[in-house]
Each structure stands twice: as structure tokens, then as C-alpha cells.
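S., here's the first fold you wanted:
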Amino acid sequence: MTALMAGLTMASAAHAKGDRAFGEYLSAECVTCHQLTGGFAGIPPIVGWPDESFVAVMNEYKLKQRPNAVMQTLAARLSDEEIAALAAYFGSLAPRPAAQ
């Protein structure tokens, strides 16, 4: 039983980390509004966030604890795995200069 619990704990930790490649795949809808440059044009930047912060904010939208109807709707459709993957992807990006 202890081995089973240890295995579940390890699987849970791996799941919480998020699959960066899957996050990149899922990011197309996010980047229609959020700039990959990290720029701010009325829409907050999401690149370079720590995974834990991204996950917490997305869950707050999902639970309607943060006001924004668009983000609440989008977050409600995402599974925990998808949110973790998006966190891994956006967290791995560094803001880059905007195109001139």
C-alpha cells in the first residue's frame, strides 16, 4: 500500500508540473489577446509567470473569484492538466522585444 501511495504522489507531482509542449499547443487561444512579447496593451502579460501563480490565477477565474467574464468562461473549460500545461509553457517564456 505504501508503494502505491508513493506512486500516486509521484504521478501527482509530475502532473502538477505540466507538459510544456502541450501548453504550447493549447496557447493559440491565449495569445489572441495576451502578447508573447510580454507587452501590455490593456491585456496583462502572462509570459514568465511562476507556474504556481499562473495556476492559482486561472483557478480563481475558474471559480469566479476574479472578475472577468471572458477569462472566467475560458478557464472554466480548462482541466487541471491543461492549466498546468499552459503554466509550464508561459512560465518558460521570457518577455521579448515587441516588433517595431
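And the second, which I think is the more interesting of the pair:
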Amino acid sequence: MTSQATTAVIHRLEAAGHVQRLRSRTDARSTHLQVSDTAVALGWQFFGPLLDRLIVTTQALDSDEQARVKEYLTAVSDALG
């Protein structure tokens, strides 16, 4: 994403109340984003059921299978980026 597109997304998230910009006290050029409690709750509402199912699926694998899946996902992540 370009810096302009990133700024536009942040503006929209801020306008929706999902994030708040916090100016750095030590660096006038720096801004930190703080995620609102409502945005966190919305994220858990949306992704929580998926995460629960992934945890159950992962726990059903033995340690060797979990290691193999981790190696695969790490390799995929490295290949993408």
C-alpha cells in the first residue's frame, strides 16, 4: 500500500472509532495507534469462533504432526514474503 492509502485507511478506522492516534511525547514526527476496546471486542466476535476451531484442530495433532505443520506454514510464509 502507498503511504496515502495507508493514511486513508487510518482516517477511516479513526472516524469509525476503531483506533485513536496518540502523538509521541518524544518525537513530533511519530504517531502511535491505539485500538479501541470496541474494536477488540468486534475482532473477537468475528474471529473468535474461527480461532477456537483452529485450536481444537491443532490440539488433535500429535507433537510431530504439529511440528510438520509449523514447518510447512513457515515455508509458505517465507515464500510469500
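Why I say that: The longest helix spans residues 37-59. The longest strand covers residues 19-23.

Talk tomorrow,
H.
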